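Input record, target 12 of the design panel.
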């Protein structure tokens, strides 16, 4: 379990170090797969609700989200200097301070259970890094990555429960998440196509 939490932290921190939107999107898929593995490590008794949770994490979070975002980006150019946060010392120190504060918070919440403390700290770190990315981004894709990183942290908090979520509640939450991803992808595709349309209009006006 400890290795899974370390891997999850790496999955949302490493994309901050790359000038690549593809790495950022793949990072979201890795986070989804790790959430599924964390759920599996809890050894909950099998039920329909638990099966749906696995399907949600492995199919929707790990596979559908990155596939849909890649599909939305198809045919659109992205600046080579794309980054989730500004590449300067202040931002790096701020990011690592947020992660440190998140794990301090986890140790305060669960001082007697080191594994639960690690899970709380990891979830809090994902939420804070998601907010940091959102606060730094003006590009739609970067904002989506920040939002979904935040959502992954919230999901990790939900996995603290030893019991599976009631099926109707879980289905409703999953539906809202799918609608959110579809809306983000649609918004991203339309926003990226606007400059091209504007250039075409200018060319026609010139002719």
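The sequence produced for target 12 reads:
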């Amino acid at each position: 379990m400890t290795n899974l939490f370390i891997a999850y932290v790496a999955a949302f921190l490493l994309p901050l170090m790359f000038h690549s939107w593809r790495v950022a999107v793949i990072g979201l898929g890795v986070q989804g797969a790790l959430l599924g593995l964390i759920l599996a490590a809890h050894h909950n008794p099998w039920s329909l609700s638990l099966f749906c949770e696995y399907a949600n994490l492995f199919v929707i979070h790990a596979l559908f989200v990155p596939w849909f975002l890649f599909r939305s980006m198809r045919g659109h150019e992205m600046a080579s200097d794309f980054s989730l946060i500004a590449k300067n010392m202040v931002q790096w120190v701020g990011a690592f301070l947020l992660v440190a504060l998140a794990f301090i918070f986890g140790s305060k919440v669960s001082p007697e259970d080191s594994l639960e403390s690690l899970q709380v700290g990891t979830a809090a770190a994902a939420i804070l890094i998601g907010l940091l990315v959102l606060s730094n981004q003006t590009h739609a894709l970067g904002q989506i990555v920040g939002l979904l990183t935040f959502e992954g942290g919230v999901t990790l908090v939900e996995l603290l429960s030893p019991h599976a979520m009631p099926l109707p509640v879980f289905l409703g939450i999953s539906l809202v998440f799918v609608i959110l991803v579809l809306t983000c992808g649609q918004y991203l595709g339309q926003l990226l196509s606007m400059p091209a349309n504007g250039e075409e209009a200018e060319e026609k006006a010139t002719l």
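Helices lie at 2-13, 21-41, 48-73, 89-109, 114-136, 140-158, 167-206.
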